[in-house]
C-alpha cells in the first residue's frame, strides 16, 4: 500500500484493488502494526463480504477481537507458506459452500449513445471506442446512471468514493469527476463533456436519459490479494 498518501487515498486505493481483482480472500498483515487492526477489519467488512485472513504477532492479545470483528481466521508470524496456503484453501472451501447464485444479474446501461458495463468497468462508444474506467470512476458513473437528471451532492459523492468516516475535500471529488468527464469525451466525443453538469457548490448530475442493456458476464479472474494496513 502507498505510504505517502493520506488515509482517504490509501483506503480508496485499497478498495480499488479489491474491486479490480475480485480476490477469493483478503490477507491483512498486522504482525508489524503498532496498534490494533480491529477498526481496519470492521472497515473492510462493511465494504465487502470477501473473507479476511489476518496475520498477526503471536503476542498480540487481539486475536479473538479480530475474529469477532469479522476475520475468517488468524495465523501468526512468521508465516509458513504451506500453512498459509492450507488456511486459504480451507477458508475458500468452507465459505464457498454458502454461496448461492444471484437471482438478479447486474445491469448494463446506455445513455447518450454510450454503453456502460459496470462489471467490466468499461465505457463503449461508437465503433470500437472502448474506454477502461478506474473503480472510482466506475462507481461514480454507476451512481449517476442510477439517478439521471437528479443532483448528487458533494457530500453524497464523497461518502460514495471514500466512505462515511472520511473527511474529503472538494478537490479530491473534483479530480474523480474531471477524470470521468475526460473518459466520456474519449468514448463519445467532445459533446460528451457536457453530460456531467456542475451545480455550483452543490454537486453534479448526469444530463442524459438512461436505459438498461442486456447483461454480459464478467471475465475478471479471481485472485488472492495480500494487503498491509
| Major beta sheet summary | 5 strands, antiparallel
Q: On the 0-100 scale, what is the average pLDDT?
A: 79
User: What Rg is obtained from the alpha carbons, in whole angstroms?
Assistant: 20 Å
Counting DSSP H or I runs of 4 or more residues, the number of helices is 7
Ends distance: 7 Å
- Spans of at least 5 consecutive residues whose pLDDT stays below 50 are 98-105, 217-229
Which geometry do the CA atoms define? elongated
Structural class: alpha/beta
How much helix is in the residues?
A: 25-40%
The main sheet orders its strands as 7-6-5-4-11
Q: How many strand segments?
A: 12
Helix and strand element order: HEHEHEHEEEEHEHHEEEE
Strand content: 15-25%
Could you walk me through the main structural features you see in this protein, from its secondary elements to its overall organization?
The chain is elongated. It contains seven helices and twelve strands. By secondary structure, it is of the alpha/beta class. The protein has helices at 7-21, 38-47, 63-69, 81-96, 135-146, 154-162, 170-188, and strands at residues 25-29, 52-56, 73-76, 108-111, 114-117, 122-124, 130-132, 152-153, 196-199, 203-206, 210-213, 224-227. A hairpin with a 3-residue loop joins strand 9 (196-199) and strand 10 (203-206).
